[in-house]
Amino acid sequence: MHIAHETARAIAALLHFAAIGVVDDVFKIDAVMRWRPYAQNLVRAHPPMAIGQVAVMGRRQRQAVLGFVEHHKVIARAVHFGETDAHGAIIGHPTRQKSHNAGMPRSSQLLHPARTYPEPLPAATVLLLRDGPDGLEVLMTRRAMTASFAPGAYVFPGGGIDAADAQAHAMARHRPGQDARRLTQAIAAIRESFEELGLLLARHADGRWADANDIAALDRKAPAEAFAPQCQARGLTLAADAVFWLAHWVTDRDLPRRFDVPFLVARMPEGQHPVADEKEQFEPLWVRPADALARHAAGQFFIIFPTIRTLERLQRFARVEDVLAACQNEQPLFTSCPRAGLLAGREERYMEHEPAFGELALTCPDGQIVHALDWQTEHPVALLKNVQRLTAPNPGVMTGPGTNSYLVGDPESGYAVIDPGPADEDHLEKLWRAAGGNIRFIICTHSHPDHSPGAAPLQALCVGHGHRPPVLGLASAPTARAHSAFTPDRDLEDGERLVLGSGANTHTLRVIHTPGHAANHLCLVLEEDGLLISGDHILNGSTTVIDPPDGHMDDYLRSLDALLAACEQDQVAFILPAHGYVLGNLWNEPYDARACIQHLKAHRLRREAKILQVMQAHPQGTLDDWVKLAYDDVPERLWPVATRSLMAHVERIRQLA
Ligand SMILES: [Zn+2]
Fold first, then answer.
1. How far is the CA of 399 from the centre of ligand 1 (A)?
2. Which part of the chain is CATH 3.60.15.10?
């Protein structure tokens, strides 16, 4: 193979990148010139590589990749850490993580053009911990002001993974459960903390930790490939077995340089003292996580998002042994690739489990920071080209930011209005305008007073302009309270489809009966785009109240199962609730719609278990007695409402008994 020197370097970098198993997609070797920046991003030397043999790797798409390779009769072998002779043609399209549109809204409906973002580079970070007089302390240092990533920020030591780290396995001790990839990451973290801070997680043959004399005898400025051998020459074995996995961060998609970084933890060896290299790192500092966060809040300590969130998690631990005990199962306590949106014009970042994440994943899947998260009652917020949300001006304890009215459709297909909300003339007028007057259906997920009273006046408004869209939903049951009495023009069948438009511009809403929050509750799946419109059955930022007799806990849980099945059927990734932001994540990513529903169900069942315990401990108690104990984690002002759900649980518990 004839390749210019520069290209060969880029290929070597790319292959190295692939070889350590962080490539999320598959790459084409003839497109390799485009990957030249990676050659510069990858630190230090690469081992000699023979170009032209073949190896293929894709972390998420290993199966697909291997299938491709089978198909194309490419000589392939699985790549793993420490295997230095595996290289090859890597084929595919390096832009989006999804190879097809399954579980994603149609690309034709996305608000922003698809764009590429850099693949994350492998790196490792280590939090060195000690027990201070006032509790757990962690070692942080300040990055150089000239650093290309997070200049001036206080961080934990760490850096890019070097090819040499994967070649040092034999010079390190590891736990049986620590696989090759984790071992390489631990070695990288050990090497980086030595280079940056002169700390050495290594032991002599007799188990003694490396001491100041050992450290003084070693060359901190030696190239990466010399690190493990010089330790070995002094009789030291790298203590990768003392390094545990705390968290897994992948840098946000909007940043020009991205890293895939395990945040590791280790106990600080006795008798060693951090000395910064004064090049990359400055001012090593032992700090309690809570103090670091307080100083940051006061504007005196610059730390970036993953550091903040990791410190927040860490501050729950009292001692080093507690942290290490929590990390024994070789899995991170959490994994996150955050997303950012705009709140009052300012960039705010969110982890997967936080309320705004799903909305950002839906509106800006490629990580564009353009979506405003401010609640809008004036103008509809576009979530997709064919889905808009206008929030009614009825915020409150029970309605959160207000009732979300959804508009599904486009100017050609006309629109379905879902949950017109209260009979607020202004709000209905705005909905009508947003639909250009072309409303085809008015659908109520259920008849509660913050959802359905707007239906009749909205219909009247349309009639005034010469057409009469039907009001659809389910008639209220006899158990409904007076304020929730409701009769639609027609009852919707379970499984019925309402179709707007035609051809590529078809928007199909499938009805799912979901009794539980209200006896006449239903949800809708927008089939073409994999969205679930959940009414009050699933909310974001608050818990659905189940108010007997119209509310029914057993029905509620069964309806959750029906929604889970619908999510599987249509690969629903996102949930659009009647109160709060969009929930979910891209299909098969952490916190997708299924995970949200499972989480919700588990929460309900945990609550029920707690209620059962309280009932057994206080068999003569009243609901008022039980609510204080079973909802002791809920503010007292919400106990009257919680009592309704408590009643529903008690009813189910007695039924099950
Ligand atoms: Zn409701």
1. 9
2. 375-550+564-584
